[in-house]
Amino acid sequence: MNRKNNQFLLSIFIFTGLVCCSTLVRSQQIPLNPEQEIPIKDNQFIFIGKEWRNNYTLVKGDQFLFSKEFMSGTVSMNGITYNGLEVNYDIYNDELIAKANRRIVVQMNKEMIDSFSLSSQLHTYRFINIRNDSLTGIGYVNVLYNQKSILFIKYKKEIEPLAVDDKWDLFFRTSRIYLMVNGVNYHIGVKKDLFNALPEYKTQIKEFMKKNKLKVSKNAPESFIPVIRYYDSIRK
Asked: Quick one: which of 42, 97, 169, 220 could link to 59 by a disulfide (CB 3.0–4.6 Å)?
C-alpha cells in the first residue's frame, strides 16, 4: 500500500474518532438542576448499561415483579428524573431493564440509579436503591412510607427446581417488610416485631392501636403505615 493510501486511511480514522468522541461528550452532558424532569428522547445518558438477554426461557413463570410486560416508568439518576420510559423490574436478579428502542433492551447501571417508579392504570409503585445499610446489598425496595422512618418491601423471586411435573423449574415470589429507623433496618412480620423495633414507645403504640382498633399484618403491608406515622409524630 503506497504512502497516499496510508495518509487517506489515517485521515478517515482520525475523523471517525473525532465524531465518536464528540458524540460521547454530548451524551454525557447532564443538566445541573436536580428538580428537572427530562423526557428520555432529550437525553440518552440513561441507557448506559449492557444489552439485556432473557436467560430463563426454560423456567416456568418469569423473573419480573408483576409480569413480562413493560410498564410506564421514571428513573432518577444523580438527582435527575427521566420520564417517558418503558421499564420492567427483574426481582430475581434485582435489576432494572428498559427499552432503548424497538429491538434493544438495556440492563441499566444499578450504581447510577437512585430511584424509579412503575405505573399501571391503578397504581404507581415507587422504589429506592439502598446501597449501604445494615443489610448489605439490599438493593431496590418498594417504599410504602417515607418520613422520619421508612417502611418498605423487598421483593425477591427464587427458582424451585423441577417443580412442574418433575420436568420444569418454577419461579416463585417472596417478600419481606422492613422498617428503617435511624438508619437501621428491622424485619417486620408480625405485631411483636414492630414492638421489638420500637421498644421505647411500646406502651404508647399499644394504646394507640387499641384506641383506633388497628391491626397489622404482613399480608397487608399498608396496615403498618398508620402506626409508623403515629410513632414518627411522638418520637424525639
From this structure: 169
